[in-house]
Write a structure and sequence with these properties.
Elements: H1 2-17, H2 47-58, H3 70-78
Amino acid sequence: MKTRTASLILVFSLAGAFAQPSGKPQYGVWGFDTAGADLKTKPGDDFFRYANGTWLDRVQIPADKPGYSLRLAMSDLTE
């Protein structure tokens, strides 16, 4: 039993050592998106407008929806 366990450990260790690397990982875009921010507004005066002002000015709410968000935009693109 000990020989079998030791053999399995050896086989799996060697298999891991000779495995091919999967290559360089691919990462998507991450971080805070400042494209939707209204940098002309002071954050202390109206933080919601500061963080979302440009996006609010640019986005049109569709007539068949009560509101619009990035989640709904993704749903529309996948339909």
